[in-house]
Structures are given as structure tokens and as C-alpha cells.
Amino acid sequence: MELSAEGKTPEYxxxxxxxxxxxxxxxxxxxxxxxxxxxGIKNGNMAPxxxxxxxxxxxxxDQKLYDQMAKENQERLGKFQEDDSETPVWQDRxxxxxxxxxxxxxxxxxxxxxxxxxxTTNRRLDAVFALFRIAYFHGCNVKEMGKNINKAHExxxxxxxxxxxxxxxxxxxxxxxxxxxxxxxxxxxxxxxxTFESYELVDFGTIIQYCVLACALALERHALxxxxxxxxxAVQALRSRFPELRELVESLHECRYADFLKSLAWVETQICxxxxxxxxxxxxxxxxxxxxxxxxxxxxxxLSLDNIADTFGVSREFVEEEISNFTAAGxxxxxxxxxxxxxxxxxxxxxxxxxxxxxxxxxxxxDLLLNRVKKLAxxxxx
Length: 382
Hints:
By secondary structure, the chain is mostly helical. The chain has a domain at 176-297. It is 69% helix and 2% strand. It has 19 helices and 3 strands. It has helices spanning 11-22, 31-43, 47-57, 63-78, 89-99, 103-115, 121-137, 142-157, 162-178, 182-192, 204-218, 221-229, 232-240, 243-253, 257-271, 281-297, 305-312, 316-328, 350-379, and strands at residues 302-304, 335-337, 342-344. The chain has a 3-stranded antiparallel β-sheet. Helix 1 packs antiparallel against helix 2 and helix 14 (243-253) packs antiparallel against helix 15 (257-271). This is 26S proteasome non-ATPase regulatory subunit 6. It holds the Pfam family PCI. Residues 181-350 form the PCI domain.
């Protein structure tokens, strides 16, 4: 897919991201964001969404503005007439309800059409995708998003066409990001990038960013580079629109770890204000750092703390504390020799490393089992 061939995402979909940013403590008083959100609401005559925004963000409610927009909504809705259920009239009505942020009205209509067994599978899938978008738009409700992914899979298995299957990949990939399933998200994004057409959900640029972020964490360095090279549109977008993400991928592949941490710091500033990533941004950054440590330490039996600190462009104290924490959590298979001032990895002794990892896993599982037995004993009289 060429970037020039991109479809257009409805303008109202962008407002959810702006509203989310304004819900964050560090951005709640950002005047520019407030003006963008209010102007977008006015442009779309989004009366129901205006009421939701005022309630959620504590804005002053302008009754005159609301009445004016609500009148326009009623006039537009009056023009939609239900005819044969196979015609797209109900779809147009549903799209309009979504565009004005009428969560209840849109949900009710989409649910009715999904449950209508007289409709074709593809029509019912369109209704399910709308339910997903409603959950995504109104607060990124992950639980509801997951329910609708399950509904979509059930319908696709009954005979959905290629278009519906392709759309489902993009929808499910975003859901997988929201539940930290980066591996599955990466596979789905790689499959759908070249044939992406779900512009009603997000724009192509967002898909590229999500794809790179998922792949950077889920794939090994050579697999990552290979996967992106096969995606011409992704490579083109990275070069022209997302140089910071390109640097994230290339610095990790080329083992430029100091540059990788700088790029990761930029990524953190972006994903911490993203509604999909916000609950997990610290987890993502931590996992990315672990991946970099594993990649570096894999090639050595031991490596001095000073060397690691220089390689990552941070202080020795930072490296020592972080590696200690990751090792204690069982995320790094190594130990710190405080006397020698180095990290001992045991690389090259695969069997010993495997036994150590198995031992740690057994201890963790044993602790969980013991805790469950204690809880059970507290409620059972022997």
C-alpha cells in the first residue's frame, strides 16, 4: 500500500484521543487541546458527546450550545428511514449515531443488527465492528472490545468474506495491544499492514506505529528487521513520518544501546498519553529494557558493570540496581559479582541455565500453590 492511497479516518475518531489526554493530570489544563476538542464537537454537532465530555472532564455545560446541536441531530436522524433490512440505510443511521457520540443509541442499534439472524454474516459483522469502535471511542473499554472480538470470530467462522477477515485482523491487533499480548499483536499487524483498510477505526499512521512498537518487543532482532523489510509501506512511513521509531528499531538491531534508550525515552512520552498503551506504558518500557539487556548479555560469560554502563550511556549505579531488580524477578539469568564488579551470565552453559530457570519456575509455582492451600485451609474445617 502506498501512503498516497491512504483512506480517510472520520474526524470525530480523533476526538477520543484528545479527550483522553485532557483526562490526564499533566494535560487537563492544556488550552489548545480544550479548544481542539470543543471545536471538533461543534463541527460535528456532537450533542451527546458534548454532554459526556462535560460530565467526564468537569467542563461548564452550555445549555444553549447543546440545544442547538441536539436540534441538528434530530433533524438529521429524521431523514433516515428504515426500509428493507438488507439496504444500507440502517448502516448510515448507525454511522451517524457514532459520529455524534450517541453511545446508547449507537449501541442499541448495532446490537439489534448483530442479533438479527435474517441479516447476512457480513452485515452482522459490520454491526460488531461498530460495537468495537463504540467501546474504543468511549474510554477504550477493553472488556467490551474483547467481547466484540469474540463475536466477530464466531461470525467469521460461519462464512465471513475476505474483507471482514482482513478488518478483523486490525481490530484484534489493537485489542491485543490493550491486553499486553504483543506477540499476537505483532503477527496480526504484519499480516494486515499491506492490505489495511480499516480507516473507520484508526488512520494508517497509527497502525504503523502500533505495528513497530509491537514488533520491537515481540520479535528477535533479525526477525524484526526481516519483518519490516517485507512491509514496503511500513518502511516508507518510518523513513518519512516516524524517524524516532525507525531509530528505535535500527539502534536495537545494530546494538547501539545508548541510542536505543534515548529512542525508548521518546517512545515513553508518546505511549503514556495513548489510550491503548497508557495502562501499560511502564510495563512496555521495562520489557524493552530487559530485551536490550538480554541481547547484550547473551554473548558473554561475564561483563563488567562499567562496560555495560558505558554501552547504555547511563551510570554504573543505575545499571547495577536495574540488573539486580530484573535478576531477582527472574527476568535476567545472571548474577552480579560485587567484588569483581561484573555481571556473570553463564553464557555457553545452556544446560545449567535451563536448570536454573526451571528451578526458579518451580519455586514460584510452589509458592503460589502454598498460598492457595493456606487460603483453602482458612475456610475449611478439617
